[in-house]
C-alpha cells in the first residue's frame, strides 16, 4: 500500500486510455500539509516527500478535502493554533474527512487540538473534540520537555510498526495526561490505541483511531525512526 499502480484503471478509478499512463507506473499518494500560518512546516513537507508522498502545502479547502491524506501541523499556543485553523475553515474540513474515513495526521499541537480542551496560562480554549481529554501543563521539574524520549506503543499499532523501541523528538510544555480510551469507556466499537511517554509522569505521545492519527512528538525531526513512522502512515493512504 502507499504507492498505487496505474493499470487498467486511471488514478481516479476511470478507465485508462491507451498511452496515457505507462504500465506499472507507481502513483504516489497525494498529501496536503495544511498551511494556516503555523510556524515552519517545510520540514514536514520534505519528510513526507522523502517517504514517497506527493505533497502540497496549502489551505485550499477543496485540495485539503480531496487529498489522500491531510497533515495538521502545529507549534506554539493551543489557542493560537485553534484560531489559525478556524480562519481557514479547517474544523469543517477535518470533520468531513473523518466522517468519510479519509486519513488525517496531527503533529505536536496539531495533535493537542484534536482533544476537547486546552488550558494554558489560565486560558481555556475549546479544541476539535475528536477525543476526550484536556491539554495541560506537564508536571515535570524541567519544562519544556525537549529532546529524545522512548515511547510505549500498544499492541496492534500501525504507526509504530517496526520502531516500537525507538526514541522520538519532543518539544512541548503541555500534553494530555489522561487516557482517552478509558474516558470513552465500554460500548464504543473501536477504542483509540494510545501510545505513552514520560516526563514528570505519563502523557499521551500518540493516538491511532481509525482515520485519525496524531503524535505529540515531531516525526519529521525524529531521524530514521520518524521517517519510518511517516512511511507507515503514508502506506495506509493507498
Describe this structure in words.
The structure is a single chain. The protein has 238 residues and is of the alpha/beta class. It has one domain (29-237): Class I glutamine amidotransferase (GATase) domain (Rossmann fold, 3-Layer(aba) Sandwich), CATH 3.40.50.880. It is built from 7 helices and 15 strands. The chain has helices spanning 42-50, 61-66, 78-87, 90-99, 109-112, 180-184, 223-234, and strands at residues 4-6, 25-27, 30-34, 54-58, 69-72, 104-107, 115-120, 123-126, 131-137, 145-150, 167-172, 174-176, 193-198, 202-209, 212-215. The strands form 4 sheets. The protein has a 7-stranded mixed sheet with strand order 4-3-5-6-15-14-13, with helices on both faces. The protein is globular, with a radius of gyration of 18 Å.
Give a quick summary of the entry.
This protein has 238 residues and is of the alpha/beta class. Helices cover 24% and strands 31% of the residues. The chain has a single domain (29-237), classed as Rossmann fold (3-Layer(aba) Sandwich).
Amino acid at each position: 500500500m502507499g504507492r498505487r499502480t496505474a493499470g487498467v484503471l486511471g488514478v481516479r478509478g476511470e478507465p485508462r486510455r491507451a498511452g496515457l499512463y505507462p504500465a506499472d507506473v507507481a502513483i504516489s499518494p497525494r498529501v496536503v500539509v495544511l498551511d494556516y500560518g503555523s510556524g515552519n512546516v517545510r520540514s514536514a513537507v520534505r519528510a513526507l516527500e522523502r517517504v514517497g508522498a506527493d505533497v502540497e502545502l496549502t489551505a485550499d479547502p477543496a485540495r485539503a478535502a480531496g487529498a489522500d491524506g491531510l497533515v495538521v501541523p502545529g507549534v506554539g499556543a493551543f489557542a493560537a493554533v485553534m484560531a489559525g485553523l478556524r480562519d481557514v475553515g479547517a474544523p469543517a474540513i477535518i470533520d468531513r474527512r473523518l466522517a468519510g474515513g479519509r486519513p488525517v495526521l496531527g503533529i505536536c499541537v496539531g495533535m493537542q487540538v484534536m482533544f476537547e480542551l486546552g488550558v494554558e496560562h489560565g486560558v481555556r480554549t475549546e479544541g476539535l473534540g475528536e477525543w476526550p481529554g484536556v491539554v495541560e501543563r506537564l508536571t515535570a521539574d524541567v519544562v519544556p520537555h525537549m529532546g529524545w524520549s522512548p515511547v510505549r506503543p500498544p499492541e496492534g499499532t500501525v504507526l509504530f510498526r517496526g520502531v516500537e523501541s525507538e526514541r522520538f523528538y519532543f518539544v512541548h510544555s503541555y500534553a494530555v495526561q489522561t487516557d482517552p480510551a478509558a474516558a470513552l469507556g465500554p460500548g464504543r466499537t473501536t477504542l483509540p490505541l494510545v501510545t505513552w511517554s514520560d516526563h514528570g509522569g505519563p502523557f499521551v505521545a500518540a493516538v491511532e483511531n481509525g482515520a485519525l492519527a496524531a503524535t505529540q512528538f515531531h516525526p519529521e525531526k525524529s531521524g530514521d525512526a520518524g521517517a519510518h513512522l511517516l512511511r507507515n502512515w503514508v502506506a495506509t493512504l493507498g
